[in-house]
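Exercise 7.
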Amino acid sequence: MRHEKYRAPIAVILAAGVGSRLSPLTDDCPKSLLSVGGSVILERMIRNCLSCGMSQFVLVLGHRADEIKQFVDKAFRGIRVTYVINDRYRETNTGYSLMLAAAAIGAADFVKFDADVVFDVRILRKLLDSDVSNVLCIDQNIALEHEEVKVITDDQRQVIEVGKSVDPNLALGESIGIEKIGAETGKRLFAELSQMMGARENLQEYYEAAYARLIANGTKFRALDITGLNWTEIDTVQDFAAAEAMFGSPITTVSRDQQWALEEAAGKVTVSTRPWQI
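Solution. The predicted structure, written as tokens, is:
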């Protein structure tokens, strides 16, 4: 049950990469500023967060950082956003980018997003409503191959292993690139990332490598099944085409209170069961 002074986690968005596999679409545009279904990818993400009550943002930028900052500042005037710049984005990966966000996050819960994931807002609502501190969103309806970040769990959905090298035959599904991290785990996560990135051979590691190390040392993560809800990661031109087919219209998310009013009017819920007010 949530504390009545519950605060929505900070949204941490990793958007430092070049997106070279999306060429020629990204030749003159950052990947996160491509338009899918009439809405910019980053705009969809931020609007989904705002509609769920998330009002603080940390954006880790690198490639074409100024263009992304200009877009966000113009499209979302007044939101609380901290920009963190990864000047080494060409020689590093998501683990390094997430490490750089430590000071901006401080001692707060956060939800980490890969900036190239387009998703149904119901995924985020389901994640925020979870009472578990550390949660990985998992899709079971995925053909698991080498590229996917695979997750093995026990029968209680507690994560045992996570990473691209995980045996697909043992995995529950794919981690979609959206996770909730509790404040206490955040401290351990950033300490782990800092230690890892002190070695040059780890600069290209993904943040999931740090999750795996924490899990191996006893930190608990839970898998949240979001199978059946729309999402897609956009790495290639083929992925972009799939996203266009899946999200064929501009974003039309409503606030949580608006959604609840609609469901209440339909007799599906009562005011007393609003989870974010408990």
